[in-house]
Amino acid sequence: MATFEPVLTKGVGQLDLTDVAAYRKNGGFVALEKALKDMTPESIIAEVTASNLRGRGGAGFPTGKKWGFLPKDGRPRYLVCNCDEAEPGTFKDHMLLEQTPLQLIEGLILSAYAINAAHIVVYIRGEFLEGYRIFMRALSAAREAGYVGDNLLGSGYSADILVHRGAGAYICGEETAMLESIEGKRGEPRLKPPFPANAGLFGMPTVVNNVETLCCIPHILTRGAAWFASIGPPKSPGPKIISVSGQVQKPGNYEIPMGLPAGELLQDYAGGLLPGRTLKAIQPGGGSSAAIFAEDLHTGIDYDSLAAKQTMLGSGGFVVMDDTTCMVRASMTLVRFFEYESCGQCTPCREGGQWVHRILRRLEAGEGSDADLLVLNTINDTLTGTNLCPLGDSIMPFLLSVLRRFPQEFAEHVTLAGCPFDPARRMVAA
Amino acid sequence: MSADRPAASRRMVNVVIDGSALSVPEGTLVVEAAKLAGTSVPVYCYHPKMDPVGLCRICLVEIEKTPKLQIACATRVTEGMVVHTSSERVAQARNGVLEFLLLNHPLDCPICDKGGECDLQDFTMSYGPGLSRLTEPKLHKPKRVDLGPTIVLDEERCILCRRCTRFDDEIAQERNLVVIDRGHRSLIGTSDGGPYRSYFSGNTTEICPVGALTSKAYRFRARPWDLTHADSVCAQCSVGCNFRIDSRFGRIMRTFTRENLEIDDGWICDRGRYTFNYLYEPTRLRRPLMRRGDDLAECSLDDAAALCAEKLGPAARAGRVGVIGGGRLSDEEAFALQAFARQVLGTNNIDYRVHLQKFASPARFGARLIDIDDASLVLMFGAYTPEQAPILDLRLRRAVARHHTQLMYIGPYRPHLPVEAQYVEYTPGAIADLMMQLADTVHQGRTESGDGFVADIARRLAQAEKIIAVHNGRDPASVSALDRLLETLAGYNHRVGVLVVGSQGNARGAEAAGCVPNLGPGYAPCSGEAGMTTGEMLKAAADGALDALFIAGANPALTFADGALARRALENVPFLAVAEQVLTETAALADIVFPTASFAEKRGHVTNLEGRRQAFGQAVEPPVDVLSDAEIIALVARAMGHAESVSPQPAALLAGLVRAESAAERSVGDLLPRAKVDAVQPAAVEKVDATHRTFTIIPVPHLYSGGGAVAHDPGTAPMRPRPYAIVNPEDAARVGVVPGERLTLSGSGGSIDVEARVGPQAPVGVALVLADMPEAPANKLLDASGFGTATISKAASVPEQRSLERVSA
């Protein structure tokens, strides 16, 4: 069984961490008190940079480096927290928001202090109604306790947090679409450059950080960059929450050290596959990631190891599929999601998504042809890598990985004129 | 490239595009650099006048050392960049984008207006797949969406490039066109779900790269390859936008922008674009008319000319004749008209001014339209550019939205502007005083310390590096006070300039051609005593002191400020000859009406408000008996035995005009000695006391008002407003005015019926009445100052006619 002592999820499930006293007792606000008293913003940035913390939202960009990009031109700066978690198979920020909102608040204030942000905006996914309520209650409690607001802990530093709720668009998790949404506009990604560090929210220098990233900050400051950097591989260290779902014994959020082999996560944390099943495919990084397979179980769960397998850690949504799963159907479900969530700006994403979805739907319904398979095998060249934001590039990776791995399964949908996993068909075949 | 693109700096960088090396300014977009390199990159969403958005992805190009293909429309060149616009990878990407765009496209090219000039067709032929691999039915979207009074939208043809929504946002600043829904379900619509109403809507049909936005005026009318093009200039207002008239078999089918960066920046307004179908309406005059008792009956041109000669000759010899017009003629014709007055009729009684405008050009500090682009402050009074000079207003909107130009509007009522403006409520008669106070304040350097709004405005002026004043040349006192203010500012090294918005399309050209009582062509003082102004001629005619009036391209019955005087004059004058395209209120009172050719049916020059003389070509032939104004004038002159005095030929007339200008050592763009003006001064608007039912009447302009072409055009009919009067909510409550009801406004010159509107833009005690509407001529209520008073009562159509006095008593 796992021996890693949880950092971000310490006390979760045992203590009511939405309570200020309980959170303090759990080690909370130590970092904030220390930082406001003894640390300069520069030393915080230096510490975070030394920790090699990489953004937990999906792209894995070094957080300290991102903070360092802000131009020093005297313009007001914004810190925006991306809590629009909507990646299929990912539910870690959801948990952090509901279970440890004060940890997020502490991370926010620390980060805002470090980058000298004038305003903090937390963009909470619209569907996280309960999380929003919990967060708002925790925010009032923190404000009352003097951790948020004017002249924090007598330091002379002031910071307040504004909460903006989303309205149901996956694309608003893309940072520039999120900024547009906060500005009251249609939530659509912006053309980059300029990057948010230069022209972000309302045209001002802006840092957008993920919930989990921000939650790491207090721990880095309390226990030191060296401690953080020692967890897992040096280039992508730290604790990481993985949302395990699919056909496993114990689905759920698990905090692991980076670099843990996928097989250990599956066996030791998630309790392994259901009885009598064999592993077919795993999406290691949410709906946008390409699949890994049984022979890849030794692969470490971290940015670089997964990238070497032509997939990604992404948001940490670990979706396990066993031998009862139809790959056409699984692909169709995912593509339907991306097709539905496309903002419609870029032609390949907008048109390609609906086309691929219609082809998969037809294949699954037994109405596909060899011509359809040919399209699926070639469309990636024009669909992927030609869009303004990563959404369009998320349509194909899983489909392509399983199409290459299980070509016969796709072909069978054509030759059988139906889905081989369809129970009704199986009865006929028997 | 318009001025506000992210500045491509002067530093040159070396790039290689498709093997050809060239040096371009650093920061140039790759798509623009490719043009310089002689190659072209296909684009849909990119438009040189708008910010790059990088949506359509058709412009993907290969840039060495960059792994992914890059969009040429948003990537800027850097030193040493090597670009391939036609490599295998690029071809594949283009092919892919086109395949995607065509997936659900209806391919109804055979019935599509855009067919033949469609970027989707053209790029598909050049770069696209021959066949679609889509094997299922196409997705359908709404076709024939009635987007507004001018446009029909086909959502299926739309490729969602968003040029139209971005035009409405970035250029028009109106933010009414938007994308609705998401992904491939996206539709184009309006933000409030209502009709798309904009004075600039027609431009969206032009910039639409496919056949999605089609203009109602042109739908299913012609194919592009059947059209004959003629370069022309719009003379509907004084901006002088360049445009192209496209005709088929001698009939105008549509008009199209003809980019002139310094004037229109490639846009035209809907009035300019759509006002041409009146030429094909039964109301268009096609035969000369002669009065027979109460009626006008058709006659021959020769008979009409003979009668003119018979009546004008004796009147001229008696010195009891006047000529009105010129502001709606070409420069050549205005020259011909004054020559007719001075040489044939022997009188200086000629005046082009039939509105309140006194001067069409600034006496000093003449500016150009592009001066607005980088102005720090624009000071507007009298003129109201959103209605009177839309394309100038478009430039102003952009300056305010993009260049932090401050717009200060001084006037008697709150303007409706899509961009931020500072409004200074000021009664017109007091503007001269304000200018003088401002000049004093600036001059005495009291801008820092003073308080009150005069000091506030003076402070803004003092802080503005470049100041452009826009007015309508209506009030000589405020104009000379403005000159003093600007002179003071110029003395402090501010850059200053003035634009005078013409009340008629060619007001400035008519002024320069000598259609004023004291100045001849080239602003040369005329020989002999100065003649009568329009106001004096009308007064004389009303008093029986004139025997004949010749009016060409003017409708004083509707547009002259003192409407009662104008009507009395036109009814009383023993002989009235009018040259017009449609039977206007003035023409209806005439003894002889000559049908005249429109601008599309003749050639010549027209001078815009900057003083820029522009040539326009003939697009179509006029009907058989329809002559240009110059030909009519020449015909009448010949009938009077003066064939040598006036040529009907534009070239000869222009030569005469230019000769006169060089003799006077002045040309059309010069700043002129002042034309003689009527003695009337605009009175300060008196605020009536609160218990009274008498309102001060202030006429308000509208783009589609007027009694001429625009009143008879089926294309602009849906955009024409119904006559209305706006009163303040306070007044409405006080006298019981309900929005939407019919009101009768009774003044000294008669009464008019209008629709009641209630709004805060009307100051208390003031009724804002739509001007120049033939159904309800506001000038019946006005005096020579351009203002008036009227009593408001319920309209007679209300079953029980009672005045409000009695109701409330």
Q: Count of helices of chain A?
A: 19
Strand order of the largest sheet of chain B: 15-14-25-24-23-16-17
The CATH superfamily label of the largest domain in chain A reads NADH-ubiquinone oxidoreductase 51kDa subunit
Strand content of chain A: 5-15%
Tell me the total number of β-strands of chain A: 8
**Spans of chain A with pLDDT under 50 lasting ≥5 residues?**
none
Structural class, judged by helices and strands of chain A? alpha/beta
What is the strand tally of chain B?
Answer: 33
**Share in β-strands of chain B:** 15-25%
Please describe what this structure looks like.
The complex is a heterodimer of chains A (430) and B (809). Chain A has 430 residues and is α/β, with parallel strands linked by helices. Chain A has 3 domains: 20-229, NADH-ubiquinone oxidoreductase 51kDa subunit (Rossmann fold); 239-322, Ubiquitin-like (UB roll); 327-429, de novo design (two linked rop proteins) (Up-down Bundle). Helix content of chain A is 42%, strand content 11%. Chain A has helices at 20-25, 30-38, 41-51, 63-68, 92-99, 101-115, 129-144, 175-182, 211-223, 225-229, 262-269, 303-308, 327-341, 347-364, 370-378, 380-383, 397-405, 407-415, 423-429; strands at 78-83, 119-124, 161-165, 206-210, 239-246, 252-257, 279-283, 317-322. In chain A, the strands form 2 sheets. Chain A has a 4-stranded parallel sheet, sandwiched between helices. A 4-stranded mixed sheet of chain A has the order 6-5-8-7, with helices on one face. In chain A, strand 2, helix 7 and strand 3 (161-165) form a beta-alpha-beta unit. In chain A, helix 2 (30-38) crosses helix 9 (211-223), helix 13 (327-341) packs antiparallel against helix 14 and helix 13 (327-341) packs antiparallel against helix 17. Chain A is globular. Chain A starts with 19 loop residues before the first helix and ends with a helix. Chain B is an alpha/beta fold and 809 residues long. Helices cover 26% and strands 20% of the residues of chain B. Chain B is built from 21 helices and 33 strands. In chain B, the strands form 8 sheets. Chain B has a 7-stranded mixed sheet, sandwiched between helices. Chain B is globular, with a radius of gyration of 28 Å. Chain B starts with 11 loop residues before the first strand and ends with a helix. Classes of the chains: A alpha/beta (430), B alpha/beta (809). The A-B interface holds A 169, 186, 191, 339-348, 350-355, 358, 362, 369, 371-372, 374-375, 379, 381-383, 385-388 and B 52-58, 60, 68-69, 74, 92-93, 95-97, 99-101, 103-104, 133-136, 139, 159-160, 162, 178-179, 181-186.
